[in-house]
User: What shape does this take?
Amino acid sequence: MQKYRIMIFAAACTTLVMQFPAVSHSAEWAIDSKSNCKVGPVWSGEGVTVSWEGACKDGIAEGKGKLTWSLNGEAVIVDEGSLRNGSLEGKGARRYLLKKSTYRGTFKAGRQHGKGKLDSEGGSDYTGGWVDGAMHGQGRFDFANGNVYEGGIDNGRKVGLGRLTWADGTYFEGNFIDDYGEGNGVCRKGSHTGPCVFEHSVFVKWRE
Assistant: This one.
């Protein structure tokens, strides 16, 4: 049985996995069977279909419109914006229907690229940089539990200099490695603020 997966870097600093096929490296186009209009193959595989509501230029989707990607007849992802040579380009929106989340921001060749925001219904949100479909650069996570992170992001994880503030006002400002606060930094804990040491995002001690 073929496995279907789309990797979506969500604002919980974890990777959400949706049941949907990955792009085939050999695929060049996806085709709307009703209009016979070609679009860039953001996703492809067994059971995947696409419909395009917009104009075609020389048989390729072009200009403003809406793309609906379905798996076995069920709509899964909806793209809205302007297409260039069959792919989303510039400002647009992508709704993940099963995960009830929406990305609004810029696209390049059909992938999130530049600045954008991912809103998750009842979940965590991310605002900041994107590169080739992944959260990257400088950004902010607003977690569902009230925690907030601002700083460096690499492939959806907290990396580099940043500040993680817990809902109770406790914070660690310093270096993050692979999603966790590590080493020397500045902390607020209770009524005290000062130099501190963290390991794996856990307070270890105050520094003199």
